[in-house]
Design a protein that fits this description.
The complex is a heterodimer of chains A (292) and B (308). Chain A is mainly alpha-helical and 292 residues long. Helices cover 74% and strands 0% of the residues of chain A. With 308 residues, chain B is α/β, with parallel strands linked by helices. Chain B folds into 2 domains: 219 residues, 3-Layer(aba) Sandwich (Rossmann fold), CATH 3.40.50; 68 residues, 2-Layer Sandwich (Alpha-Beta Plaits). Chain B is built from 10 helices and 14 strands. In chain B, the strands form 3 sheets. Chain B has a 6-stranded mixed beta sheet, sandwiched between helices. In chain B, strand 7, helix 5 and strand 8 form a beta-alpha-beta unit. Classes of the chains: A mainly alpha (292), B alpha/beta (308).
Protein backbone atom coordinates (compact mmCIF):
# COMPACT_ATOMS: atom_id res chain seq x y z
CA UNK A 1 0.00 0.00 0.00
CA UNK A 2 1.40 3.38 -1.05
CA UNK A 3 4.78 1.81 -1.76
CA UNK A 4 5.67 4.34 -4.43
CA UNK A 5 4.73 7.21 -2.16
CA UNK A 6 6.91 5.88 0.65
CA UNK A 7 9.71 5.32 -1.82
CA UNK A 8 9.39 8.90 -3.11
CA UNK A 9 9.41 10.28 0.41
CA UNK A 10 12.54 8.27 1.19
CA UNK A 11 14.20 9.64 -1.93
CA UNK A 12 13.10 13.26 -1.38
CA UNK A 13 14.06 13.37 2.28
CA UNK A 14 17.56 12.21 1.35
CA UNK A 15 17.82 14.57 -1.59
CA UNK A 16 18.14 18.35 -1.65
CA UNK A 17 15.37 19.57 -3.92
CA UNK A 18 12.49 19.36 -1.46
CA UNK A 19 14.43 21.16 1.25
CA UNK A 20 15.85 23.79 -1.07
CA UNK A 21 12.43 24.79 -2.38
CA UNK A 22 11.02 24.97 1.15
CA UNK A 23 14.02 26.97 2.32
CA UNK A 24 13.71 29.51 -0.49
CA UNK A 25 10.00 29.86 0.23
CA UNK A 26 10.62 30.47 3.93
CA UNK A 27 13.36 32.98 3.05
CA UNK A 28 10.85 34.80 0.85
CA UNK A 29 8.38 34.93 3.76
CA UNK A 30 11.04 36.32 6.10
CA UNK A 31 12.06 38.93 3.55
CA UNK A 32 8.46 40.05 3.00
CA UNK A 33 7.97 40.30 6.76
CA UNK A 34 11.05 42.45 7.00
CA UNK A 35 9.68 44.69 4.21
CA UNK A 36 6.45 45.11 6.18
CA UNK A 37 8.34 45.91 9.38
CA UNK A 38 10.60 48.34 7.52
CA UNK A 39 7.64 50.14 5.90
CA UNK A 40 6.06 50.72 9.30
CA UNK A 41 9.32 51.85 10.89
CA UNK A 42 9.93 54.40 8.18
CA UNK A 43 6.32 55.59 7.84
CA UNK A 44 6.21 59.39 7.68
CA UNK A 45 2.78 61.07 7.90
CA UNK A 46 4.00 64.20 6.18
CA UNK A 47 4.60 62.25 2.98
CA UNK A 48 0.85 61.71 2.82
CA UNK A 49 -0.03 65.38 3.21
CA UNK A 50 -0.88 65.08 6.90
CA UNK A 51 0.43 67.57 9.41
CA UNK A 52 3.02 66.59 11.96
CA UNK A 53 0.35 66.94 14.65
CA UNK A 54 -1.37 63.84 13.19
CA UNK A 55 1.66 61.69 13.94
CA UNK A 56 0.67 60.65 17.51
CA UNK A 57 -2.79 59.63 16.32
CA UNK A 58 -1.37 57.69 13.35
CA UNK A 59 1.20 56.04 15.64
CA UNK A 60 -1.55 55.00 18.03
CA UNK A 61 -3.63 53.57 15.20
CA UNK A 62 -0.64 51.81 13.68
CA UNK A 63 0.29 50.37 17.05
CA UNK A 64 -3.23 49.09 17.52
CA UNK A 65 -3.32 47.56 14.03
CA UNK A 66 0.10 45.92 14.27
CA UNK A 67 -0.93 44.18 17.49
CA UNK A 68 -4.12 42.70 16.08
CA UNK A 69 -3.06 41.24 12.75
CA UNK A 70 -5.03 38.51 11.03
CA UNK A 71 -2.68 35.58 10.39
CA UNK A 72 -4.65 34.46 7.33
CA UNK A 73 -4.64 37.97 5.85
CA UNK A 74 -0.90 38.38 6.47
CA UNK A 75 -0.19 34.95 5.02
CA UNK A 76 -2.53 35.66 2.12
CA UNK A 77 -0.70 38.89 1.32
CA UNK A 78 2.76 37.41 1.65
CA UNK A 79 2.37 33.86 0.32
CA UNK A 80 -0.82 33.61 -1.72
CA UNK A 81 -1.03 37.01 -3.37
CA UNK A 82 1.44 36.85 -6.23
CA UNK A 83 1.04 33.09 -6.31
CA UNK A 84 4.07 32.13 -4.24
CA UNK A 85 2.55 29.08 -2.55
CA UNK A 86 1.20 27.87 -5.90
CA UNK A 87 4.52 28.63 -7.57
CA UNK A 88 6.66 26.59 -5.17
CA UNK A 89 4.17 23.72 -5.11
CA UNK A 90 4.09 23.74 -8.94
CA UNK A 91 7.86 23.91 -9.31
CA UNK A 92 8.16 20.91 -7.02
CA UNK A 93 5.57 19.05 -9.08
CA UNK A 94 7.34 19.89 -12.36
CA UNK A 95 10.76 18.81 -11.09
CA UNK A 96 9.51 15.57 -9.56
CA UNK A 97 7.29 14.72 -12.53
CA UNK A 98 10.09 15.08 -15.04
CA UNK A 99 12.89 13.51 -13.03
CA UNK A 100 11.56 9.95 -13.31
CA UNK A 101 11.46 10.29 -17.09
CA UNK A 102 14.73 12.18 -17.55
CA UNK A 103 16.70 9.69 -15.47
CA UNK A 104 15.02 6.64 -16.99
CA UNK A 105 13.91 5.56 -13.51
CA UNK A 106 10.35 5.17 -14.76
CA UNK A 107 11.40 2.49 -17.25
CA UNK A 108 12.86 0.33 -14.52
CA UNK A 109 9.73 0.81 -12.47
CA UNK A 110 7.19 0.10 -15.18
CA UNK A 111 9.09 -2.86 -16.62
CA UNK A 112 8.97 -4.31 -13.12
CA UNK A 113 5.20 -4.28 -13.64
CA UNK A 114 4.33 -1.55 -11.21
CA UNK A 115 0.82 -0.41 -11.98
CA UNK A 116 0.76 2.78 -13.98
CA UNK A 117 -2.48 4.00 -12.44
CA UNK A 118 -1.07 3.64 -8.93
CA UNK A 119 2.07 5.47 -10.04
CA UNK A 120 0.09 8.54 -11.05
CA UNK A 121 -2.26 8.32 -8.08
CA UNK A 122 0.62 8.22 -5.62
CA UNK A 123 2.40 11.06 -7.40
CA UNK A 124 -0.70 13.26 -7.06
CA UNK A 125 -0.83 12.32 -3.40
CA UNK A 126 2.82 13.28 -3.05
CA UNK A 127 2.21 16.70 -4.60
CA UNK A 128 -0.77 17.25 -2.31
CA UNK A 129 1.30 16.29 0.73
CA UNK A 130 4.17 18.53 -0.26
CA UNK A 131 1.80 21.46 -0.83
CA UNK A 132 0.43 20.87 2.65
CA UNK A 133 3.97 20.75 4.01
CA UNK A 134 4.84 24.01 2.24
CA UNK A 135 1.71 25.71 3.50
CA UNK A 136 2.33 24.55 7.06
CA UNK A 137 5.96 25.61 7.28
CA UNK A 138 5.37 28.90 5.48
CA UNK A 139 2.43 29.67 7.74
CA UNK A 140 4.60 28.92 10.75
CA UNK A 141 7.40 31.05 9.28
CA UNK A 142 4.95 33.92 8.76
CA UNK A 143 3.76 33.69 12.34
CA UNK A 144 7.25 33.45 13.84
CA UNK A 145 8.76 36.15 11.63
CA UNK A 146 5.98 38.63 12.41
CA UNK A 147 6.21 37.84 16.11
CA UNK A 148 9.95 38.38 16.06
CA UNK A 149 9.40 41.68 14.25
CA UNK A 150 7.18 42.80 17.10
CA UNK A 151 3.76 42.28 15.57
CA UNK A 152 0.81 40.77 17.44
CA UNK A 153 -2.19 38.76 16.30
CA UNK A 154 -5.90 38.95 16.88
CA UNK A 155 -7.54 35.85 18.26
CA UNK A 156 -8.18 33.18 15.64
CA UNK A 157 -11.56 31.66 14.80
CA UNK A 158 -10.09 28.20 14.26
CA UNK A 159 -12.85 26.52 12.22
CA UNK A 160 -12.99 29.41 9.74
CA UNK A 161 -9.20 29.75 9.70
CA UNK A 162 -8.65 26.03 9.06
CA UNK A 163 -11.36 26.05 6.40
CA UNK A 164 -9.60 28.91 4.67
CA UNK A 165 -6.27 27.05 4.93
CA UNK A 166 -7.87 23.97 3.37
CA UNK A 167 -9.26 25.96 0.45
CA UNK A 168 -5.90 27.68 -0.09
CA UNK A 169 -4.19 24.28 -0.02
CA UNK A 170 -6.70 22.82 -2.51
CA UNK A 171 -6.20 25.72 -4.90
CA UNK A 172 -2.39 25.48 -4.69
CA UNK A 173 -2.69 21.72 -5.30
CA UNK A 174 -4.71 22.51 -8.40
CA UNK A 175 -1.82 24.56 -9.78
CA UNK A 176 0.66 21.79 -8.91
CA UNK A 177 -1.54 19.14 -10.54
CA UNK A 178 -1.97 21.11 -13.76
CA UNK A 179 1.78 21.69 -13.92
CA UNK A 180 2.52 18.00 -13.29
CA UNK A 181 0.04 17.00 -15.98
CA UNK A 182 1.64 19.30 -18.56
CA UNK A 183 5.11 18.09 -17.55
CA UNK A 184 4.09 14.46 -17.99
CA UNK A 185 2.53 15.17 -21.35
CA UNK A 186 5.59 16.99 -22.65
CA UNK A 187 8.29 15.24 -20.58
CA UNK A 188 10.07 18.58 -20.61
CA UNK A 189 11.67 20.05 -17.52
CA UNK A 190 11.90 23.50 -19.08
CA UNK A 191 8.27 23.52 -20.15
CA UNK A 192 7.20 22.24 -16.75
CA UNK A 193 9.03 25.01 -14.93
CA UNK A 194 7.78 27.66 -17.35
CA UNK A 195 4.23 26.37 -16.85
CA UNK A 196 4.67 26.61 -13.09
CA UNK A 197 5.82 30.22 -13.32
CA UNK A 198 3.33 31.35 -15.96
CA UNK A 199 0.30 29.80 -14.26
CA UNK A 200 1.08 30.56 -10.63
CA UNK A 201 2.12 34.15 -11.16
CA UNK A 202 -1.08 34.98 -13.03
CA UNK A 203 0.76 35.88 -16.20
CA UNK A 204 -2.03 34.52 -18.40
CA UNK A 205 -4.66 36.33 -16.33
CA UNK A 206 -2.70 39.57 -16.64
CA UNK A 207 -2.40 39.23 -20.39
CA UNK A 208 -6.08 38.43 -20.82
CA UNK A 209 -7.07 41.32 -18.58
CA UNK A 210 -4.91 43.64 -20.70
CA UNK A 211 -6.57 42.38 -23.87
CA UNK A 212 -10.00 42.74 -22.35
CA UNK A 213 -9.39 46.34 -21.37
CA UNK A 214 -8.48 47.09 -24.98
CA UNK A 215 -11.69 45.58 -26.28
CA UNK A 216 -14.61 47.90 -26.90
CA UNK A 217 -17.68 47.17 -24.84
CA UNK A 218 -19.18 44.25 -26.65
CA UNK A 219 -20.16 40.63 -26.35
CA UNK A 220 -16.51 39.68 -26.79
CA UNK A 221 -15.51 41.82 -23.82
CA UNK A 222 -18.24 40.26 -21.69
CA UNK A 223 -17.15 36.81 -22.70
CA UNK A 224 -13.58 37.69 -21.83
CA UNK A 225 -14.74 38.99 -18.45
CA UNK A 226 -16.47 35.72 -17.77
CA UNK A 227 -13.39 33.73 -18.76
CA UNK A 228 -11.12 35.83 -16.58
CA UNK A 229 -13.55 35.51 -13.68
CA UNK A 230 -13.17 31.74 -13.80
CA UNK A 231 -9.40 31.69 -14.10
CA UNK A 232 -7.65 30.35 -10.99
CA UNK A 233 -5.75 33.57 -10.36
CA UNK A 234 -9.04 35.27 -9.48
CA UNK A 235 -9.62 32.72 -6.76
CA UNK A 236 -6.07 33.24 -5.62
CA UNK A 237 -6.65 37.00 -5.40
CA UNK A 238 -9.80 36.45 -3.39
CA UNK A 239 -8.12 34.07 -0.97
CA UNK A 240 -5.21 36.44 -0.44
CA UNK A 241 -7.44 38.74 1.60
CA UNK A 242 -7.59 36.08 4.31
CA UNK A 243 -10.34 34.10 5.96
CA UNK A 244 -12.87 36.92 5.58
CA UNK A 245 -12.88 36.11 1.87
CA UNK A 246 -14.82 32.92 2.47
CA UNK A 247 -16.40 33.63 5.84
CA UNK A 248 -19.97 34.73 6.56
CA UNK A 249 -21.39 33.69 3.20
CA UNK A 250 -19.63 36.48 1.36
CA UNK A 251 -20.57 36.62 -2.30
CA UNK A 252 -18.10 36.48 -5.17
CA UNK A 253 -16.72 39.84 -6.24
CA UNK A 254 -14.91 39.86 -9.51
CA UNK A 255 -12.58 42.53 -10.80
CA UNK A 256 -15.20 43.72 -13.22
CA UNK A 257 -18.60 43.29 -11.70
CA UNK A 258 -19.18 44.34 -8.13
CA UNK A 259 -21.47 41.56 -7.00
CA UNK A 260 -22.58 38.07 -7.82
CA UNK A 261 -25.18 35.69 -6.55
CA UNK A 262 -22.59 32.99 -6.08
CA UNK A 263 -20.77 32.53 -2.78
CA UNK A 264 -17.05 33.25 -2.99
CA UNK A 265 -16.33 29.84 -1.48
CA UNK A 266 -18.47 28.10 -4.09
CA UNK A 267 -16.75 29.97 -6.91
CA UNK A 268 -13.29 29.07 -5.63
CA UNK A 269 -14.21 25.44 -5.06
CA UNK A 270 -15.65 25.09 -8.57
CA UNK A 271 -12.48 26.57 -10.10
CA UNK A 272 -10.31 24.33 -7.96
CA UNK A 273 -12.39 21.27 -8.71
CA UNK A 274 -12.13 21.84 -12.43
CA UNK A 275 -8.33 22.10 -12.14
CA UNK A 276 -8.16 18.86 -10.18
CA UNK A 277 -10.45 16.95 -12.50
CA UNK A 278 -8.81 18.08 -15.74
CA UNK A 279 -5.28 17.36 -14.57
CA UNK A 280 -6.01 14.03 -12.88
CA UNK A 281 -8.22 12.62 -15.64
CA UNK A 282 -5.82 13.71 -18.41
CA UNK A 283 -2.79 12.28 -16.60
CA UNK A 284 -4.51 8.95 -15.99
CA UNK A 285 -5.88 8.56 -19.50
CA UNK A 286 -2.71 9.57 -21.31
CA UNK A 287 -0.14 8.34 -18.79
CA UNK A 288 -1.48 4.84 -18.47
CA UNK A 289 -1.68 4.25 -22.22
CA UNK A 290 1.33 6.03 -23.57
CA UNK A 291 4.60 4.38 -24.59
CA UNK A 292 7.50 5.15 -22.30
CA UNK B 1 11.23 -23.70 -22.11
CA UNK B 2 11.10 -20.41 -23.93
CA UNK B 3 11.41 -17.34 -21.74
CA UNK B 4 10.44 -15.00 -24.56
CA UNK B 5 8.77 -15.68 -27.85
CA UNK B 6 7.46 -13.04 -30.20
CA UNK B 7 5.21 -13.88 -33.11
CA UNK B 8 4.92 -11.41 -35.99
CA UNK B 9 5.57 -8.61 -33.52
CA UNK B 10 5.05 -5.26 -35.19
CA UNK B 11 5.34 -1.68 -34.00
CA UNK B 12 4.39 1.11 -36.34
CA UNK B 13 4.91 4.83 -35.99
CA UNK B 14 2.69 6.32 -38.65
CA UNK B 15 3.45 4.56 -41.90
CA UNK B 16 6.87 3.35 -40.76
CA UNK B 17 7.34 -0.02 -39.13
CA UNK B 18 10.03 0.22 -36.48
CA UNK B 19 9.58 -3.49 -35.83
CA UNK B 20 8.18 -5.56 -38.66
CA UNK B 21 6.68 -9.01 -38.02
CA UNK B 22 9.51 -10.04 -35.74
CA UNK B 23 9.83 -13.66 -34.70
CA UNK B 24 12.14 -14.16 -31.76
CA UNK B 25 12.77 -17.16 -29.52
CA UNK B 26 14.79 -16.93 -26.33
CA UNK B 27 15.46 -20.02 -24.25
CA UNK B 28 15.12 -19.70 -20.50
CA UNK B 29 18.38 -19.26 -18.57
CA UNK B 30 20.43 -18.22 -21.59
CA UNK B 31 22.13 -15.03 -22.67
CA UNK B 32 20.61 -13.86 -25.95
CA UNK B 33 22.74 -11.48 -27.98
CA UNK B 34 20.51 -9.11 -29.91
CA UNK B 35 22.42 -7.61 -32.82
CA UNK B 36 21.46 -4.91 -35.26
CA UNK B 37 22.45 -1.54 -36.62
CA UNK B 38 21.25 1.70 -35.06
CA UNK B 39 17.55 2.09 -35.76
CA UNK B 40 17.13 -1.60 -36.60
CA UNK B 41 14.44 -1.95 -33.94
CA UNK B 42 16.34 -3.47 -31.00
CA UNK B 43 15.30 -0.93 -28.35
CA UNK B 44 11.70 -0.83 -29.57
CA UNK B 45 11.50 -4.62 -29.37
CA UNK B 46 12.94 -4.60 -25.87
CA UNK B 47 10.51 -1.90 -24.80
CA UNK B 48 7.58 -3.95 -26.05
CA UNK B 49 8.81 -7.03 -24.21
CA UNK B 50 9.27 -4.92 -21.07
CA UNK B 51 5.73 -3.57 -21.35
CA UNK B 52 6.95 -0.01 -21.86
CA UNK B 53 5.49 0.23 -25.37
CA UNK B 54 2.45 -1.38 -26.89
CA UNK B 55 2.82 -3.40 -30.06
CA UNK B 56 0.75 -2.49 -33.08
CA UNK B 57 0.15 -6.17 -33.81
CA UNK B 58 1.63 -9.57 -33.09
CA UNK B 59 2.10 -11.62 -29.95
CA UNK B 60 4.47 -11.57 -27.01
CA UNK B 61 4.77 -14.77 -25.02
CA UNK B 62 6.61 -14.65 -21.72
CA UNK B 63 7.42 -17.96 -20.06
CA UNK B 64 4.74 -19.63 -22.12
CA UNK B 65 1.97 -17.13 -21.38
CA UNK B 66 0.48 -14.74 -23.89
CA UNK B 67 1.10 -11.23 -22.59
CA UNK B 68 0.24 -9.37 -25.76
CA UNK B 69 -2.73 -7.42 -24.50
CA UNK B 70 -1.89 -6.54 -20.94
CA UNK B 71 0.47 -4.17 -19.22
CA UNK B 72 0.86 -6.15 -16.03
CA UNK B 73 2.32 -9.65 -16.02
CA UNK B 74 3.19 -11.93 -13.16
CA UNK B 75 6.84 -12.14 -14.09
CA UNK B 76 8.93 -9.18 -13.06
CA UNK B 77 11.22 -7.96 -15.79
CA UNK B 78 14.41 -6.10 -15.07
CA UNK B 79 15.26 -3.57 -17.73
CA UNK B 80 18.17 -1.32 -18.49
CA UNK B 81 17.01 0.38 -21.65
CA UNK B 82 18.60 3.57 -22.98
CA UNK B 83 19.89 4.73 -19.57
CA UNK B 84 20.36 3.12 -16.18
CA UNK B 85 17.66 5.15 -14.39
CA UNK B 86 19.94 6.40 -11.64
CA UNK B 87 19.22 9.20 -9.19
CA UNK B 88 22.56 11.04 -9.29
CA UNK B 89 22.27 12.89 -5.98
CA UNK B 90 21.73 9.73 -3.98
CA UNK B 91 24.23 7.07 -2.98
CA UNK B 92 24.37 3.72 -4.76
CA UNK B 93 22.74 2.04 -1.77
CA UNK B 94 20.00 4.67 -1.61
CA UNK B 95 19.30 4.22 -5.32
CA UNK B 96 18.67 0.55 -4.69
CA UNK B 97 16.70 1.29 -1.54
CA UNK B 98 14.39 3.69 -3.40
CA UNK B 99 13.51 1.10 -6.02
CA UNK B 100 13.29 -1.70 -3.46
CA UNK B 101 10.80 0.32 -1.43
CA UNK B 102 8.84 1.21 -4.55
CA UNK B 103 8.55 -2.49 -5.34
CA UNK B 104 7.77 -3.52 -1.80
CA UNK B 105 10.88 -5.66 -1.39
CA UNK B 106 11.12 -7.02 2.13
CA UNK B 107 14.35 -6.42 4.04
CA UNK B 108 15.17 -3.76 1.46
CA UNK B 109 18.48 -2.76 3.00
CA UNK B 110 19.90 -6.29 3.20
CA UNK B 111 18.70 -7.06 -0.33
CA UNK B 112 20.16 -3.81 -1.67
CA UNK B 113 23.52 -4.56 -0.09
CA UNK B 114 23.44 -8.05 -1.57
CA UNK B 115 22.80 -6.59 -5.03
CA UNK B 116 25.75 -4.23 -4.63
CA UNK B 117 27.82 -7.33 -3.93
CA UNK B 118 26.52 -9.05 -7.05
CA UNK B 119 27.70 -6.19 -9.28
CA UNK B 120 30.88 -5.57 -7.31
CA UNK B 121 30.02 -2.11 -6.01
CA UNK B 122 29.92 -2.73 -2.27
CA UNK B 123 33.01 -0.61 -1.75
CA UNK B 124 31.25 2.51 -3.08
CA UNK B 125 27.77 1.84 -1.71
CA UNK B 126 27.65 5.02 0.34
CA UNK B 127 29.11 7.26 -2.39
CA UNK B 128 26.91 9.53 -4.47
CA UNK B 129 26.25 8.19 -7.93
CA UNK B 130 27.07 11.45 -9.71
CA UNK B 131 30.76 10.76 -9.05
CA UNK B 132 30.65 7.27 -10.58
CA UNK B 133 32.43 6.28 -13.78
CA UNK B 134 30.34 5.06 -16.73
CA UNK B 135 31.20 1.45 -15.97
CA UNK B 136 30.11 1.81 -12.34
CA UNK B 137 26.87 3.44 -13.43
CA UNK B 138 26.16 0.60 -15.84
CA UNK B 139 26.82 -1.96 -13.13
CA UNK B 140 24.56 -0.11 -10.73
CA UNK B 141 21.97 0.00 -13.53
CA UNK B 142 22.10 -3.78 -13.67
CA UNK B 143 21.74 -3.98 -9.89
CA UNK B 144 18.66 -1.75 -10.14
CA UNK B 145 17.25 -3.98 -12.86
CA UNK B 146 17.74 -6.95 -10.53
CA UNK B 147 15.60 -5.45 -7.75
CA UNK B 148 12.55 -7.66 -7.33
CA UNK B 149 14.31 -10.86 -8.49
CA UNK B 150 13.37 -10.70 -12.17
CA UNK B 151 13.41 -13.87 -14.24
CA UNK B 152 14.14 -11.87 -17.36
CA UNK B 153 16.70 -9.12 -17.76
CA UNK B 154 16.71 -6.77 -20.74
CA UNK B 155 19.98 -4.90 -21.25
CA UNK B 156 20.16 -2.39 -24.07
CA UNK B 157 23.73 -1.58 -25.04
CA UNK B 158 25.20 -2.07 -21.54
CA UNK B 159 28.73 -2.32 -22.95
CA UNK B 160 28.70 1.03 -24.74
CA UNK B 161 31.50 3.35 -23.76
CA UNK B 162 33.08 0.97 -21.28
CA UNK B 163 36.82 0.54 -21.02
CA UNK B 164 38.25 -3.00 -21.47
CA UNK B 165 38.37 -3.71 -17.75
CA UNK B 166 34.79 -2.53 -17.16
CA UNK B 167 33.67 -4.51 -20.20
CA UNK B 168 35.24 -7.65 -18.82
CA UNK B 169 33.62 -7.06 -15.39
CA UNK B 170 30.26 -6.50 -17.03
CA UNK B 171 30.62 -9.69 -19.06
CA UNK B 172 31.41 -11.62 -15.90
CA UNK B 173 28.36 -10.19 -14.09
CA UNK B 174 26.02 -10.98 -17.00
CA UNK B 175 27.41 -14.46 -17.44
CA UNK B 176 27.03 -15.33 -13.77
CA UNK B 177 23.45 -14.01 -13.67
CA UNK B 178 22.45 -16.35 -16.47
CA UNK B 179 24.54 -19.39 -15.78
CA UNK B 180 24.57 -19.35 -11.97
CA UNK B 181 21.24 -17.74 -11.12
CA UNK B 182 19.24 -18.95 -14.11
CA UNK B 183 18.13 -15.48 -15.18
CA UNK B 184 17.36 -15.11 -18.87
CA UNK B 185 19.28 -12.17 -20.29
CA UNK B 186 18.61 -10.38 -23.56
CA UNK B 187 21.48 -8.09 -24.33
CA UNK B 188 21.90 -5.83 -27.30
CA UNK B 189 25.28 -4.46 -28.23
CA UNK B 190 27.33 -3.04 -31.03
CA UNK B 191 30.48 -4.45 -29.47
CA UNK B 192 30.17 -7.73 -31.33
CA UNK B 193 33.38 -9.39 -30.24
CA UNK B 194 32.38 -8.79 -26.61
CA UNK B 195 28.83 -9.95 -27.18
CA UNK B 196 30.24 -13.07 -28.77
CA UNK B 197 32.05 -13.88 -25.53
CA UNK B 198 28.97 -13.72 -23.33
CA UNK B 199 25.96 -14.76 -25.42
CA UNK B 200 24.73 -18.33 -25.87
CA UNK B 201 22.42 -17.55 -28.76
CA UNK B 202 22.13 -14.66 -31.18
CA UNK B 203 19.41 -12.86 -33.06
CA UNK B 204 20.26 -10.53 -35.90
CA UNK B 205 17.68 -7.85 -36.65
CA UNK B 206 17.62 -5.61 -39.68
CA UNK B 207 14.96 -3.06 -40.57
CA UNK B 208 12.74 -4.41 -37.80
CA UNK B 209 12.79 -8.02 -39.00
CA UNK B 210 14.73 -10.99 -37.70
CA UNK B 211 17.37 -11.97 -40.24
CA UNK B 212 18.75 -15.00 -38.41
CA UNK B 213 18.81 -16.71 -35.05
CA UNK B 214 21.59 -19.13 -34.23
CA UNK B 215 23.46 -20.64 -31.34
CA UNK B 216 27.00 -19.84 -30.31
CA UNK B 217 28.08 -23.25 -31.65
CA UNK B 218 26.52 -22.44 -35.03
CA UNK B 219 28.26 -19.09 -35.01
CA UNK B 220 31.62 -20.69 -34.36
CA UNK B 221 30.97 -23.14 -37.19
CA UNK B 222 29.99 -20.32 -39.54
CA UNK B 223 33.02 -18.35 -38.54
CA UNK B 224 35.36 -21.27 -39.02
CA UNK B 225 38.27 -21.30 -41.41
CA UNK B 226 37.97 -20.28 -45.04
CA UNK B 227 40.11 -20.37 -48.15
CA UNK B 228 41.42 -17.02 -49.29
CA UNK B 229 42.86 -16.51 -52.75
CA UNK B 230 43.98 -13.77 -55.09
CA UNK B 231 43.96 -14.37 -58.83
CA UNK B 232 44.77 -12.53 -62.05
CA UNK B 233 41.09 -12.26 -62.97
CA UNK B 234 38.93 -12.22 -59.80
CA UNK B 235 35.62 -11.94 -61.69
CA UNK B 236 36.28 -15.02 -63.79
CA UNK B 237 37.65 -16.84 -60.76
CA UNK B 238 34.44 -16.03 -58.86
CA UNK B 239 32.30 -17.30 -61.76
CA UNK B 240 34.30 -20.51 -62.09
CA UNK B 241 34.09 -21.30 -58.38
CA UNK B 242 30.38 -20.41 -58.28
CA UNK B 243 29.74 -22.72 -61.22
CA UNK B 244 31.25 -25.56 -59.22
CA UNK B 245 29.00 -25.05 -56.18
CA UNK B 246 26.34 -22.33 -55.99
CA UNK B 247 25.70 -22.94 -52.28
CA UNK B 248 29.16 -22.14 -50.92
CA UNK B 249 29.41 -18.54 -49.71
CA UNK B 250 32.08 -16.60 -51.57
CA UNK B 251 32.89 -13.08 -50.46
CA UNK B 252 35.04 -10.56 -52.28
CA UNK B 253 37.41 -8.89 -49.83
CA UNK B 254 38.23 -5.16 -50.14
CA UNK B 255 41.64 -6.02 -51.68
CA UNK B 256 39.95 -8.07 -54.41
CA UNK B 257 40.75 -11.44 -52.84
CA UNK B 258 38.06 -14.11 -52.79
CA UNK B 259 37.17 -15.75 -49.47
CA UNK B 260 35.48 -19.15 -49.86
CA UNK B 261 33.63 -20.56 -46.88
CA UNK B 262 33.93 -24.22 -47.65
CA UNK B 263 36.24 -26.84 -46.22
CA UNK B 264 39.89 -26.02 -45.75
CA UNK B 265 41.42 -29.46 -46.03
CA UNK B 266 44.06 -30.35 -48.62
CA UNK B 267 41.54 -31.96 -50.99
CA UNK B 268 39.39 -28.82 -51.02
CA UNK B 269 42.37 -26.53 -51.67
CA UNK B 270 43.57 -28.85 -54.42
CA UNK B 271 40.08 -28.84 -55.99
CA UNK B 272 39.97 -25.04 -55.97
CA UNK B 273 43.38 -24.73 -57.57
CA UNK B 274 42.38 -27.25 -60.27
CA UNK B 275 39.22 -25.30 -61.12
CA UNK B 276 41.18 -22.10 -61.54
CA UNK B 277 43.96 -23.85 -63.51
CA UNK B 278 41.37 -25.42 -65.86
CA UNK B 279 39.84 -21.98 -66.39
CA UNK B 280 43.22 -20.55 -67.27
CA UNK B 281 43.36 -18.27 -64.23
CA UNK B 282 46.70 -17.76 -62.52
CA UNK B 283 46.76 -17.86 -58.74
CA UNK B 284 48.71 -15.08 -57.04
CA UNK B 285 47.97 -16.14 -53.46
CA UNK B 286 46.24 -19.12 -51.83
CA UNK B 287 45.89 -19.75 -48.12
CA UNK B 288 43.62 -20.53 -45.18
CA UNK B 289 42.15 -17.73 -43.07
CA UNK B 290 39.67 -17.53 -40.18
CA UNK B 291 36.41 -15.70 -40.77
CA UNK B 292 35.94 -12.60 -38.63
CA UNK B 293 32.81 -12.69 -36.42
CA UNK B 294 32.14 -9.01 -36.89
CA UNK B 295 32.29 -9.43 -40.66
CA UNK B 296 29.86 -12.31 -40.36
CA UNK B 297 27.32 -10.21 -38.44
CA UNK B 298 27.70 -7.30 -40.83
CA UNK B 299 27.21 -9.67 -43.73
CA UNK B 300 24.01 -11.01 -42.13
CA UNK B 301 22.68 -7.51 -41.50
CA UNK B 302 23.45 -6.47 -45.05
CA UNK B 303 21.79 -9.60 -46.32
CA UNK B 304 18.73 -8.55 -44.32
CA UNK B 305 18.84 -5.09 -45.86
CA UNK B 306 19.05 -6.46 -49.38
CA UNK B 307 16.00 -8.66 -48.75
CA UNK B 308 13.99 -5.73 -47.35
Amino acid sequence: MLRLLRSDLYRLIRGKMMWMLALIFVAHICFMTWVEWFAIQTFDVTEFGLGAESAPLVDALTGQLTQSLSLSMEYGTIAISGGFLALFASLFAALVAVSDFSTGYIQGLFSARQGRASYFAEKFLLFALYTLFLEAISMLATYVALRVAGFGFASIDWPVFLGWCAVAWALACGYAFITACITWLTKSKALGCVTAVVLATSTIGGILTGIMLLLPSSDAAELMEAIIDWLPFMSQNTLSSGETSIANGKTWTSMFTSTSDMLALTHILITTGVMWVISIVTSFIVGTRRDI
Amino acid sequence: MLAVETRALTKSYGSKNAVNELFMRVEQGTVYGFVGKNGAGKSTTMKMIAGLARQTSGQIMLFGEDKSHQHGVDHAIGALIENPGLLPNLSALDNLMVKSRAMGVEKAKERSKALLDVVGLSYVGSKKVKGFSLGMKQRLGIALALVGNPQLLLLDEPLNGLDPEATRDMRTVIGSLAHEQGITVIISSHVLDQLNRVADTFGVISDGSMVAEFSDAQLQASCGQAVRLRATDPARAFAALRARNAQVPIVTAPDGALVIYSGTNDQEIEAISHILYDAGIILLELGVVKRDIEDYFVELMERGNSHA
